[in-house]
Write a structure and sequence with these properties.
The chain is of the alpha+beta class. Helices cover 38% and strands 17% of the residues. The longest helix is centred in the N-terminal third of the chain and has 25 residues.
């Protein structure tokens, strides 16, 4: 990653944070002033936070709670998205979900990347691509899709079905994804780069492996944050990570997601907290 090497050992990560005076004991510690300063020095530093989340030795008690409550929270937020009718809210919805999970003590991070949706050939539906590099949608090479990783869940995607599909794709795509499953898979050029963008790169003299043009340190990043293939009965979803992200604002200041007249913090206080209280009382 050009002057940045990702640390993927828990012991070394803790040493890194300690040596820089970063308190790493609570979810969301990337908000600390010291951490933000490190990010200013190297924009890839947030990858250390994601690596830490992936390497924490979670207790069985934590995992049992996470397995019960994270899907519960995700479904509540998904239902509100459906009720509101908003489409294409992956960035805003994932940011709100991430902050809510942090407030409930669940480690997580948000991911920027591409999504390839492949349907059973018998359905006659063309493969749907959310390309990171697309002359129409993403001329500057940015995330085509955003989701959350919250161990033990490898993908928490509450907007996968809430996109502006044109055909019958939505009939076969799951409402939302919250899974501990998923197989590591290869990354193909078509997963990240649209044919038009690929031809543009060729005209500009970019030959051979065009994937490395997508991200600085692409090979190192994807060897640590691997693509996942998730299979369903009539459709497969390939999630390719190309960057780690984090909400810029605390939940109470996020106003980009307004569902049926409620901001994220209002929905959290009025709906999620009371419903979690009921769940925990069972």
């Amino acid at each position: 990653m050009s002057a940045f090497t990702l640390i993927n050992s828990l012991e070394k990560l803790e040493l890194e944070f300690k040596s820089n005076g970063i308190d790493y004991t609570s979810p969301g510690f990337y908000d600390s002033e010291v951490f933000l300063q490190k990010e200013q020095e190297n924009r890839d530093y947030l990858c250390h936070y994601a690596s830490y989340v992936n390497n924490v030795a979670y207790t069985q008690e934590y995992l049992r709670k996470a397995e019960r409550e994270i899907p519960f929270i995700a479904e509540l937020l998904f239902r509100e998205l459906v009720k509101d009718g908003r489409l294409g809210a992956c960035i805003d919805a994932s940011s709100v979900l991430s902050r809510i999970l942090e407030l409930e003590g669940f480690w997580n991070y948000t991911v920027k990347g591409s999504l390839t949706i492949k349907f059973d050939p018998n359905l006659g539906i063309t493969t749907k691509h959310f390309w990171a590099a697309d002359l129409v949608e993403n001329p500057d090479i940015k995330a085509a899709h955003v989701w959350v990783v919250a161990p033990p869940f490898k993908v928490v995607d509450i907007t996968v079905s809430r996109q502006p599909y044109q055909y019958k794709e939505q009939d076969y795509i799951p409402n939302y994804v919250c899974t501990t499953a998923g197989a590591e898979c290869e990354i193909n050029e078509i997963d990240l780069i649209s044919p038009d963008y690929s031809r543009l790169l060729t005209r500009q003299g970019v030959l051979g492996n065009k994937l490395r043009h997508i991200k600085r340190g692409f090979d190192e990043f994807t060897s640590n944050f691997k693509p996942l293939l998730i299979e369903f009965s009539s459709v497969s979803l390939k999630y390719v990570q190309i960057g780690i992200s984090a909400p810029d604002l605390p939940l109470e200041q996020i106003t980009a997601l307004n569902l049926s007249g409620k901001l994220g913090v209002e929905f959290y206080k009025d709906v999620i907290r009371p419903e979690l209280f009921k769940l925990r009382a069972q």
